Amino acid sequence: MIPTTIKCRTLLFDLDGTLVDSAPDLCHTMNYVLKSIGLETLGLEEVRHLVGNGARFLMARGMYGAQATAPDGNPEFEKAIELFLPYYQDHMTDNSLPFVGCLDMLENLTKKGFKLAVVTNKPETMAHKMLQNLAMDHFFSHIIGGDTLAERKPHPLPLLHTLKKMDTPPHLGVMVGDSETDCLAAKAAKCGLIMVSHGYNKGVPVTELTPDKTIDFFDELPHLVELA
User: Fold this and answer.
1) Choosing from 14, 25, 178, 182, which is the catalytic residue?
2) HSE on the CB side for 135, CA within 13 Å?
3) Rounded to an integer, what distance in angstroms lies between the CA atom of residue 166 and that of residue 14?
């Protein structure tokens, strides 16, 4: 029998596609780069399903196809990254906003005594800037980016490192994410997993990733966790 609530102490949130609908500005930046290097632009819905694993993978997928990985030593690709990062830094919250109910959910969890952190594959400085721009940074005691540690999600290290910093054993931590990357990291770290259905999961239903819980709206989340 599946428990109605997950006992936990700390919740680790993915950023893009989980807390923040950042696809509009990622799409705008990608198309700026694609135009600059003479390639065809992409639609917003296409870009939503390319997000994950950080800017290098996003740009590779936009340039070479949805299954592409970031190449090493490719001058054209490195030029694209050099264009992408500073432009995105200046435009990351032009049209990006927290998903509906996100801020109320974070406030609710904070009042209940849960510890909150962000574990994202976005570069750490960009994650800090996005959260500051959207007045969300005060909710989180730790913000771990894709370049903070030697490994990034789907490796479990970012989750385990953060939980250790927050004095939380893995079985009392819960990853809240939207993608297979988050799922694999949580399962490897042996912590709980709650998936949101509104994210950027390459068109795969999140229920197929067998999370502990799935939510369609953020007001559901505080009812699914119990402070341990």
Assistant:
1) 14
2) 3
3) 17
Amino acid (one-letter) located at 87: Y
Residue 131 DSSP SS3 = helix
Q: Which residue has the tokens 């502990």?
A: 212
Instruction: State yes or no: is 14 an active-site residue.
Output: yes
CATH superfamily for domain 6-21+97-227: HAD superfamily/HAD-like (3.40.50.1000)
Specify the DSSP element, H or E, that contains 166. Answer: none
Query: Domain map of the chain by residue range?
Result: 6-21+97-227, 23-91
**Residues 90-147: tens digit of each pLDDT:** 999 999 999 999 999 999 999 999 999 999 999 999 999 999 999 999 999 999 999 9
CATH assignment, 23-91: 1.10.150.240
CA distance linking residue 175 with residue 208, whole number of Å: 17
